[in-house]
Amino acid sequence: MEPKTVLVVTSVASPNAALKELASGCQQHGVEFFVIGDEGSPRQFELEGCRFYDLKEQMELGFAFARQCPARSYARKNIGYLLAMRTGAAVLIETDDDNFPRAEFWAQRHRKQLARLISDTGWVNIYRYFTDAKIWPRGLSLESINSSVPNYDTLITKEVDCPIQQGLTDEDPDVDAIYRLAFPLPQSFRRDRRIALGNNSWSPFNSQNTTWWSDAFPLLYLPAYCSIRVTDIWRGFVAQRIAWTNNWGVLFHGPTIRHDRNKHDLLRDFQEEVPGYLNNKKICAALGALALKSGRDNLNDNLRLCYSELVRMNMIGEAELDLLESWIADIERITRRTNSKAQKNSHDAPR
After folding, report:
1. What is the spatial distance between Cα 119 and Cα 21, in angstroms, rounded to a whole number?
2. pLDDT in tens for each of the 351 residues of the chain?
3. 210 with 166: CB under 8 angstroms?
4. Which of 5, 71, 101, 198 could join 1 in a cystine, given CB atoms 3.0 to 4.6 angstroms apart?
5. Which of 334, 298, 339 minimizes the C-alpha distance to 64?
6. Helix pair angle (266-288, 231-244), 10° resolution
7. Helix, strand, coil proportions of the chain in percent (round to 5)?
């Protein structure tokens, strides 16, 4: 894959079939693969084609975030993102340890996409464009699960700058506990459509099959002081809101992985999703009302404003703001180091 691409997963599992398949594909396609462990990870994790970081190694990386982030948290995946940035990644792919890549997963990704564009529609059940089945993504406002969407054939086709791209997942897609308790699985999706969401259109996206380009890397931040079942969803809402300030679209495309879901307690999932069921719509309304600034240089300040609003609304614990500052400080150190190295290389180049 070109340009430099890094794959990031967080896992407490021993090398399983999905991780082995991901590692093999990374070796074949020149992708660096980071697995971020946590409490409960195996003492020995040996998998060719993958670099595993246990808690002790994470603490020695020099990241303020790694030292401050609580253990047993999906937000420790942020450490993998920081590692990818420090190694000079231009493209970052994230997935989970129960996803199996298809051949298309390894195709070269392109930031600018010719896609059908949706703007100024409010909530969108993006799954409706990829299947006729009654299904909705985890994180969709419950008030919107039966709402219609603009007809696909009426949407304009346009080249859209999409530094955040969400691939769908076949067989056991990312749906909420209500869906899993009430409707049948497996479900699969068509592969021939690309939908870009623009300004004032909301659809949740997750961390199962998502590609990020370096301009949007600060928006990768997963909050720690909230339920694990909403952390990537709320991260996605913040990222969408900030993307609007730069005229970036968020692309949704057909499935390039299949999900063989790890064992879950669905009632526990339901309980942990309740904050989202009750508040996703309010959160997006509040984020949409914020006065954010345009430009890549304002991403960090926009993150501060968005997460301060979520703390003010009592959606996320106040400790999140200090953790976010550590994330921002780590990125700024990486950026300074990268710029310093680039300047040195420029001065050392033959003339």
Report:
1. 37
2. 678 999 999 999 999 999 999 999 999 999 999 999 999 999 899 999 999 999 999 999 999 999 999 999 999 999 999 999 999 999 999 999 999 999 999 999 999 999 999 999 999 999 999 999 999 999 999 999 999 999 999 999 999 999 999 999 999 999 999 999 999 999 999 999 999 999 999 999 999 999 999 999 999 999 999 999 999 999 999 999 999 999 999 999 999 999 998 888 999 999 999 999 999 999 999 999 999 999 999 999 999 999 999 999 999 999 999 999 999 999 999 998 877 665 666 556 655
3. yes
4. 5
5. 334
6. 20
7. 40, 20, 40
Q: How far is 188 from 203, CA to CA, in rounded Å?
A: 19
CA distance 109 to 107: 6
d(CA 5, CA 89): 6
Number of residues in the chain: 351
Q: Which two tokens stand for residue 23?
A: 């590692």
User: How far is Cα 227 from Cα 104, in angstroms, rounded to an integer?
Assistant: 32
Q: Which of 129, 103, 104 is nearest to 115 (CA)?
A: 129
Neighbours of 118 (CB within 10 A): 24
Max distance between CA atoms of the chain, in angstroms, equals 68
The residue assigned the tokens 């993307």 is 243
